[in-house]
Design brief:
By secondary structure, the protein is an alpha+beta fold. Helices cover 46% and strands 21% of the residues. It has a 4-stranded antiparallel β-sheet. The relative contact order is 0.12.
Length: 226
């Protein structure tokens, strides 16, 4: 059962909904539902059918592929106020998901059923513009990721990931395996790099977390080669 509070939070996170016509707003409010994923829960599996257009109200999911050798490759993440480009692709094309997604934290979603999505795409200029603009932006980000993985040294990728994920106290709440998955490497290599950076005073390594000590050196790329 959807509540007025859930609807209000959805509209607050996605202000475009205020631009809907009265009839389209009624359709959206009447069909949207609000699934909640606990940390570690599966959002969708490889080749799953796409039943809903997903809009993230709060939390974070990670979208990834597994290689034949069993190594996880991060494609992108979806945070609060974001949508999933692969969900949009699947709804537009009618195919299954070409990747997998799991929640990294407790995640609240607004889910518009596929029939509602298609109706709004046909009839609502506001919704169609939002979806296509967001889709274009997310695709651009995916190409940036591909370029980074193909061209940027592992040291730079790991340093950027630490800086992006660090909280206000400089703590990254991730294991070495999670960081390795994020940067397209393996745990042993990431652990070795973090150990070297700890010796240089750039980071402090603890169980299940990494404390960023010298943001300036990480940001400037003043790192020893691996």
């Amino acid at each position: 059962m959807r509540s007025a509070h859930q609807i209000d939070r959805w509209i607050e996170r996605f202000p475009l909904i205020r631009d809907f016509s009265a009839s389209h707003l009624q359709i959206a409010r009447g069909t949207v539902h609000f699934p909640v994923l606990e940390a570690g829960a599966i959002a969708y599996e490889l080749q799953d059918a796409c039943a809903d257009y997903l809009m993230c109200i709060d939390g974070r999911t990670r979208v990834f592929r597994m290689s034949e050798g069993g190594r996880e490759m991060l494609i992108y993440k979806v945070g609060a106020g974001g949508t999933c480009v692969l969900t949009t692709q699947c709804l537009l094309s009618g195919g299954g998901f070409p990747a997998q997604s799991v929640a990294e934290a407790r995640t609240e979603l607004a889910a518009l059923p596929s029939d509602t999505f298609r109706q709004l795409m046909r009839e609502s200029d506001a919704f169609r513009t939002f979806v296509l603009d967001d889709y274009t932006k997310l695709l651009s980000g995916m190409f940036d990721l591909v370029e980074e993985i193909a061209c940027a040294p592992l040291e730079q990728r790991l340093a950027r990931r630490l800086l992006v994920d660090a909280d206000a106290e400089g703590i990254v709440w991730k294991t070495h395996q999670q960081l390795a998955s994020d940067v397209g490497s393996v745990r042993e290599v990431v652990s070795r790099l973090l150990g070297e950076w700890a010796d240089e005073g750039l980071v402090e390594v603890r169980r299940g977390q990494v404390q960023v000590i010298d943001r300036a050196s990480l940001a400037a790329g003043r790192l020893n080669p691996s």
